[in-house]
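Why predict the complex rather than its parts? Because the way molecules touch one another can change local conformation, and only a joint prediction can capture that. The input here totals 722 residues.
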Amino acid sequence: MKSIAELEEIRKRTLEQIGLRENNEKMRIVVGMATCGIAAGARPVMNTFLEELKKRNINNVSVTMTGCIGICRLEPIVEVIEPDGSKVTYVKMNPEKAARVVAEHIVNGRVCIDYTIGAEEKNK
Amino acid sequence: MEIYRAHVLVCTGTGCTSSQSPKIIEEFEKYLKANKLDNEVKIVKTGCFGLCAEGPIVVIYPEGAMYTMVKPEDVKEIVEEHLLKGRLVKRLLAGNKELKDSVKPIEQVEFFKKQKRVALRLCGVINPESIDEYIAFDGYKALAKVLTEMKPEEVIDEIKRSGLRGRGGGGFPTGIKWEFAARSQDTEKYVCCNADEGDPGAFMDRSILEGDPHSVLEAMTIAGYAIGASQGYVYVRAEYPIAVKRLNIAIQQAKEYGLLGKNIFGTDFSFDIELRLGAGAFVCGEETALMTSIEGHRGEPRPRPPFPAVKGLFGKPTLLNNVETYANIPTIIRNGAEWFASIGTEKSKGTKVFAMGGKINNTGLLEIPMGTTLREVIYDIGGGIPNGKKFKAAQTGGPSGGCIPASKIDTPIEYDTLVELGSMMGSGGLIIMDEDNCMVDIAKFFLEFTVDESCGKCPPCRIGTKRMLEILERITGGKGEEGDVEKLEILAKNIKASALCGLGQTAPNPVLSTLRYFRDEYEAHVRDKKCPAGVCKSMLNYIVDEQRCKCCGICARNCPVNCISGQKGVPYKIDQEKCIKCGTCLEKCPFKAIFKNA
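Output of the joint prediction:
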């Protein structure tokens, strides 16, 4: 080790991988992964979230899974939960939609209204 | 490098390792692979979380869900439910009684709520075998700061202002110790770390070395810079195989990264650390005996002065601190002396790690701010006394310490208040006793230990403690004589005043402090030939209550020496001559018709 810059670099690099162990208040993306969700294609959706977040070097958002919330017909369901507890529920997700949610909602704070459960219910 | 969506942290401290955590890790690997999750979920081996009573412990992030008492056969369920489907396995969650529906993050588990972790900061957070993870959590930043921005005097000044005192038992101000070592002029100086933790039931230092070995290495290197030394030794017990292994890995990694060795951070400061294994003699935890042992001689203490700071290891000025003291240093440097001094009380700054055991629900490792009361430790963190028994006393400081009786339960825990009570902070062993413990027996236990461990160099310790033990054996054997208690007191005071080293000077403490608070128990043993707690076997009779006896014969069938007789219709009787007082009959009687007559 010849310089502090080197140390800092290792720190940043490793923190990217293990930052999720810090239990800070942060935005969470919760993917429904019960049998219904998995059958409807939730796994590729979740993987897309992980990849997109990594691509953009976003460390302060965690991706977790949850069980069935009862509206299986709208799976894959994804909830984006703000640190203050308010949440947006996206339904009938797919990898393309997931990528857009990251770009618009996570990065720029603009909710993708047309994917939300509210929009879906209106269209009925 | 891969980004994982979840981390499974499995405790690999000594406690959890002996309750099968390596097997649990294997099972996780197997089931993660079977469910094709091995690219998404990372398994991390960590150090001790502290809640050893509930081990093995598994914590899953990002939720921070803490699973306790996990068995290898539970792993399949955790993987399939939690990691695959995102449903918590509620029956295994810590504190699941109070749990409703959501995850309880680890910080909110009752056991952790009142704790503050400085020395144990990364135990149970990082993989102790990965220097990268230590660096990610600001590791070696303090060393970088010290080497590039601070003069040695400034480092010492920072430590002095922090108010840190030695965590190994004595409580000597650390900064002043460093200053003494820095002032000694010599061509060679040494930095030593005392990891020869020997108090029965204490495992604070082991847990730090197992969970966060780099913090100790970093601190020793900082100390080397501050006092002008270029060589360090860690004296660690050979009975700590996991700690030794991880220290070796840590030293190797630090050398590869150039954080140990020549010209650290491009400066002209060089420092190296070697391990020395102790063979498990208690006296080698005493500083002069420890250094004698490192030198390759038989571990015997020598008189002080000269103090190690003047003439220590190999006759050179030496700085010797305890593991926990070192573990505080990097955080003090990073956060500043003022931050550290803001924790704790007027005269005791910072936090203290305790290994709590005995009659307590949450046996384990805890770190509390100085000034926390014993009541909070026992009832809030420790979860109270098992089976609703009454708290009687807490023993701190192991064989060198003393007891705090129930009447002083609201005393804040700090160096000086404990000394006033006739006990001491010690290295952090904390043994909780309930109404079923006999205080004379406890004093005898600790004295047996010191008699065994006395190195034999000075007569007060070699002969005096043996005589004390003989008196105690007489008292607990029901053969105590009038005047024995007074004799004990005189002997104890003389040994304290005349023994050569810390071991002998403190050996009578358990006797003196139990005499101070529980003299009536000693007197009951001597005068009435009774043991009020019903522990000392010689003064104990097991008796059958004839009214309650249903003449079932279960006691007689279970008695290992066949000393119980009786038959249908005739209440059973115990032959007191033959009885070995094992207590089996009392345990087995379904009608509670057998009782102890103490």
